[in-house]
Amino acid sequence: MMIVAIGVFVIGITFTVVLSFTNSKLFPSFNFVGWRQYEILWSTPRWVQSVTNIWFYGFGHIVLCMGVGFALAVAMDQRIRGEDAFRTIFLYPFALSAVITGLVWQLMLDPIWGFQAFVRSLGFADFTFAPLANGETALIGMIVASVWNGVGVTMAILLAGLRGIDEEIWKAARVDGIPAWRTYVSIVVPMMRGAVATALVLLVVNVVRTFDIVIAMTGGGPGIATQMPATYVIDNINSRNVGHGMAAATCMLAPIAVLIIIQAVFRWRASRRGRTTS
Amino acid sequence: MKSFFPVVAMVAAAMLGSTAVRAADVEVIHWWTSGGEQAAVSVFANEFDKTGDKWVDNAIALGETARAAIMQRALGGDPPDAAQFNPGRQYEELIAAGLLLDLTPLAEKEGWDNFIRPEQIKAPCKIDGKWWCVPVNIHMQNWAWASVAAFKKAGLEVPTDWDTYLADLPKLKDAGVIPFAVGGDGGGWQISLLANQLILAQLGAETVEKIWKDKDLALAGGPEVLKAFQTLKTLGSYADAGSPNRSWADTTSLVISGEAALQVMGDWAQGEFQVAGQKPGTDYACLLGPLVPEPKYVRTGGDIFVFFKQNDPDVERAQLSLASMMVNPKVQALFNTAKGSAPVRDDVDMSLANDCMKKAIEVLKQPGSVVPDANQWRNEAFTTAQNAIFSDLIYNANTTPEAAQAQFVELLKNAE
Amino acid sequence: MSSVSLPAGIEPSGPRPRHVTATRIGIYAFLLIAALFFLIPLIVMIMTSMKSMSEIRGGNIFALPMQPTLDYWVKAWSSACTGRDCYGLAPGFFNSVKITVLSVPVSIVIAMINGYALSFWRFRGSELMFAILLFGAFVPFQVLVYPIIFGLSRVGLFGTLPGIVIVHTIFGMPILTLLFRNFFASLPVELFKAARVDGAGFWRIFFSVMLPMSVPITIVAVILQVTGIWNDFIFGLVFAGRENMPMTVQLNNIVRTSTGTVEYSTNMAATVLTGAVPLIVYFVSGKWFVRGIAAGAVKG
Question: Which of B157, B315, B367, C106 suits a disulfide with B310, CB 3.0-4.6 Å?
């Protein structure tokens, strides 16, 4: 079965890459057109916008999840009361699908029904917070929703990392009179880099796949303000422009391939240094 | 669930020793989900069920989504029995791949050639002498729908030309009315529809075809088209905050309720006014052209149905029976009255149609009045990209009409 | 919930609190504000689903329902329309149950064996296989959608229940294999070596040594898969076919079907119902989820 899965990944990706050099429409054809699809792709404003969007959205999502997640984890680690209750609250959105996240936040951010209307009804008639209605801010609305959904997991992973730190470290730091924040920054965080790496990997995986939340929340709009590479690929398959869609898919794959190669090189070098540390 | 009913019927037939034909289920994918559209599709479903076979409804909201599902199922080897498309190039790969049922024998037997008109409606289905689909209606896209109450609220008359309306926009806004209603769902097809009508209004029926049919880049990059892009930008700035991901039907309901003043939309919007019980002339105004005092042309689109080969004689018989029923004059009358569209044949009693529709049918009869929708010439990939350009223009404050026009020319240059 | 004590070694380890200071008040304030941010959407969802449309129009989304009603829940469950079909979410619910019940055990058993093989039985190409699987964890589904539609149609499984189960199994494999591999890699190698010395083979070690030890990580995997598969949208949309359409796809269809004005009451009721299953799984097993992260993932 593992062989089957690997086969699917390898054959599927090969198929995708090969078709990206053809002008396949609905069915695969092997009428090769060279780099033509890629030339059109990078001169298509919607694709360029999608690529810009995924970087902006990905950066915002990851930085906020890591920042807020770490802040929550540190706060939770202060021997507080009701830790279980807090953790339950912070984590539950993760159990909900991106479709649900998108739908509920669409309502929350709706200019007529949502938060903006609520604040205005309190007497602040000029209050404006309806990011989804405006092309320049729609991605911010989407980041708010996706952070709500995903930050709990980052918090949980980082908290587990914090709990893995030896109590002695704190004692030693206190004896030396190092302030708590400096202990976190220069001792604790470097010691929990495994947790940080895990959290980061999960966040990156989720960002690259971003699709469902776009469909449920904005449909890619206003205009093309929240289009993502994944929606571009699917739309091109659906509009029977498979060759072009596969060129876009191949481009989505490239940064991930680079990431994996870097990781593989590190693993290889690590395994040469000491075969027992895996 | 194609199996259960036929089995029962077969057993019953065997027991009775009769040679009765076995009823079959016909699964139909379409995107008619709004109130008016459901009234119309129910005509088909009910009439078809009366014949003994069964209409299995598979309605998928939004044309883009429905067509995607049809294509994925065709690709996956599990196509529906019948499927809706817009006339034009949306199903050319299906014909080329030999997936569709050839309707030519049926069409010849019933003489479709003699009564389906005009030529522009026949052409997308009859390709190289063979019939591959059934046209069921003629939709006219170049309409504007205006709320009489909304204009009254701003102390205005419903305008009959663009200049007056553009001048009215700020006044409508001051009166607390949404001056211009538009929705941006499905990647922006509503905005493309609007842009196409604005370009038509600029160029006229004789010239406008050159853009999409002949890919005339000089014309597409010229001053008339730029003017249309500028108007589009202006209209966009008067849309409301709820516009971006809204469906056409929800947008129409704003005009029905008088919250919004005017929407440019095809005549399927008429079905919504009917369902809401509104009367043309008193509650709402229909402005063909759109907003042209003496309209001389109609931008036609519509709906067609294709039938996928199923290798099952019973299903095939039922498919042909459905195809035949769809062009039946009585069904055409009922269906098109509910849908707000014009029938595909002349010998249909449209006495039930309202004044708007009668006006349009008159224009339709004039020679040279028909301008087919761009779908006829360009494929869906083009349409999707075009939607992106137009909707970016109206929703992105930083996109200028000039920039959008340059993108449009580039798109046209690469179009297949 | 607090009766379940944390396993040793993961007690709070931050700097010991000294007194009630401004810092501590700040910490609680921060946590409470955060909790509010997390809870509000759920509250809004539930409250909206209990209000009539006229009440929604008259008030605001944060107002308590004046005449709470479950009518919209009933409607969303059994009679909300997608097109002309007005069967509500119920068929989607049962489809999701079918898909989940079949996909979860299959994918976990396979991933467990994979993880075990990859961490103890170094064979030729195992590093390469692991690298490819890891790559698979990152590959966006959309890249493979088209080849898989095409492949499944060739074997006649497109749009069928086995088809969607296979797709879930394949796409769940990278992350689950990673999870199990990291877990097995964290076990002392001596355990494995001792069993080898005793002459145990691949399967015996697996069943008598590894399987009993991997109960906690398996629970984590089950939670991940149940929520993941239940919440899946795109695979269900593309591969499940009309007969097996899962609840999330049906939810989206119901929300997108509107006749004039958006009926938020029904939409939110449908949303709550669709989210109920993963939420229950989560509330019942939340502790395991966190425990699993502490036990496995961090060491990878």
Answer: B315
Q: What is the pLDDT, as a whole number, of residue C13? A: 59
Whether C27 and chain A come into contact, CB under 8 Å, resolves to yes
Minimal Cα–Cα distance from B152 to chain A, Å?
Answer: 24
Answer yes or no: do C61 and A107 touch at CB < 8 A: yes
Per-residue confidence band for C297, with pLDDT thresholds at 50, 70 and 90: very low
Nearest CA in chain A to B396: A135
Q: Find which of A24, A26, A105, A107 to mutate to test the B interface (most B CBs within 10 Å of its CB).
A: A26
Chain A residue at shortest CA distance from B407: A45
What is the percentage of chain A residues whose pLDDT exceeds 90?
42
How far, rounded to the nearest angstrom, does the alpha carbon of residue A52 sit from its chain's CA centroid? Answer: 14
Q: Write the DSSP assignment of A89-142 as a string of letters.
A: HHHGGGGS-HHHHHHHHHHHT-TTTSHHHHHHHTT-TT----GGGSTTTHHHHH
Of C85, C153, C154, the CB nearest to B57: C85
Q: What is the pTM of this model?
A: 0.88
Span between the terminal Cα atoms of chain C, in Å = 29
CATH number, domain containing residue A95: 1.10.3720.10
Domain count, chain A: 1
Ranges of residues in chain B with a pLDDT under 70 are 1-21
Chain B residue numbers with beta carbons less than 8 Å from the beta carbon of A234 are 68
Q: Which residue would you say has higher pLDDT here, B37 or C6?
A: B37
Among the listed residues A251, A247, A233, A244, the one whose alpha carbon sits nearest the alpha carbon of residue A23: A244
Q: Which two tokens stand for residue A72?
A: 């929550």
Average pLDDT over every residue of A27-32: 90
* pLDDT over 60 at A66, yes or no: yes
What CATH superfamily is the domain B143-299+370-414? Periplasmic binding protein-like II (3.40.190.10)
Q: B385-389: long-range contacts at Cβ-Cβ below 8 A with a sequence spacing of 24 or more? A: B385/A44, B385/A46, B385/B411, B386/B192, B386/B411, B387/B186, B387/B187, B387/B188, B387/B189, B387/B191, B387/B192, B388/A45, B388/A46, B388/A223, B388/A224, B388/A227, B388/B187, B388/B188, B389/A45, B389/A46
Q: How many percent of chain C have pLDDT more than 70?
A: 87
Question: What end-to-end distance do the CA atoms of chain B give, in Å?
Answer: 40
Check CB contact under 8 Å for A257 and C135.
Answer: yes
Q: Which long-range contacts (CB under 8 A, 24 or more apart) does C155-160 make?
A: C156/B77, C158/B73, C158/B76, C158/B77, C158/B78, C158/C239, C158/C241, C159/B73, C159/B76, C159/B78, C159/C239, C159/C240, C159/C241, C159/C242, C159/C243, C159/C244, C160/C241, C160/C244
- The complex's ipTM works out to 0.86
| Domains: count for chain C | 2
- Beta bridge partners of residue B303, listed in sequence order: B137
Give residue A63's pLDDT band: very low, low, confident or very high (50, 70, 90).
very high
Backbone CA torsion sign across B99, C257, A101, A135: positive
Question: Nearest CB to B391: which of A23, A221, A240?
Answer: A221
What pLDDT, in 10s, does the model give residues B313-364? Answer: 999 999 999 999 999 999 999 999 888 888 998 888 777 778 888 888 888 8
Per cent of chain C over pLDDT 90 is 33
Ranges for all domains in chain B classified under CATH 3.40.190.10: 4-139+302-359, 143-299+370-414
Please say whether the beta carbons of A136 and A53 come within 8 A. no
Per-residue pLDDT tens digits for A234-257: 999 988 899 999 999 999 988 777
Find the closest chain B residue to A234 by CA distance: B68
How large is the average pLDDT for residues C26-52? 94
CATH topology classification for B4-139+302-359 = D-Maltodextrin-Binding Protein; domain 2 (3.40.190)
The span from the CA of B208 to the CA of B312, in Å, is 45
Question: Which among B62, B72, B250 has the least Cβ separation from residue C238?
Answer: B72
